[in-house]
Amino acid sequence: QVQLVESGGGLVQAGGSLRLSCAASRSISSFNTMGWYRQAPGKQRELVARIISGGSTNYADSAKDRFTISGDNAKNTVYLQMNSLKPEDTAVYYCYADRVQLGVPYAYWGQGTQVTVSS
C-alpha cells in the first residue's frame, strides 16, 4: 500500500512563499509521474505541476514562473515551492503519484494540505 503524506500548507499573505512536501512510502523513482493538484471551494481539482520519470516537468499556466516542483530521491519526497502567492492560489493541495505494475495502472492521492493566501 502506497502512502503519500503532504505537509507544509498554511496561511500566508499575498506575495509570500510556502513549500509543500509530499513524502512517499516508497521510492519516488518507482512512479511514472508525481505531481500536485489543487481544489478550491466550488471548483474542480486541477493540475498545478508534475514531474515525469526522467525529470521533465509540466506546470499549469497559473503556476509557471512562480512555482517549482522538485524531487529528492534520498528522502522519497517531492516538493512544491510556491512563490509570489496570490489569493486565487487558495485551495487544498493534493499530492498525486502513478505507476504501472505488470501492465496494471495504479494512482495514489495524499490527504491534502490547505493553503490559504490572504490579500
- Estimate what percentage of residues fall within beta strands: over 45%
Radius of gyration: 14 Å
The topology string of helices and strands comes to: EEEEEEEEEEE
Quaternary state reads single chain
User: What is the distance, rounded to the nearest whole angstrom, between the alpha carbons of the first and last residues?
Assistant: 40 Å
* Main sheet makeup: 7 strands, mixed
What is the residue-averaged pLDDT?
96
Q: How many β strands by DSSP?
A: 11
Shape, please? globular
| Low-pLDDT sequence parts | none
Helix percent reads under 10%
Helices, by number, come to 0
Structural class: mainly beta
Description:
- The protein has strands at 4-7, 10-13, 18-24, 33-39, 46-52, 57-59, 67-72, 77-82, 91-101, 104-109, 113-118.
- The protein is mainly β.
- Strands 2, 4, 5, 6, 9, 10 and 11 form a seven-stranded mixed beta sheet that branches.
- A hairpin with a 2-residue loop joins strand 9 and strand 10 (104-109).
- The termini are far apart.
- The mean pLDDT is 96.
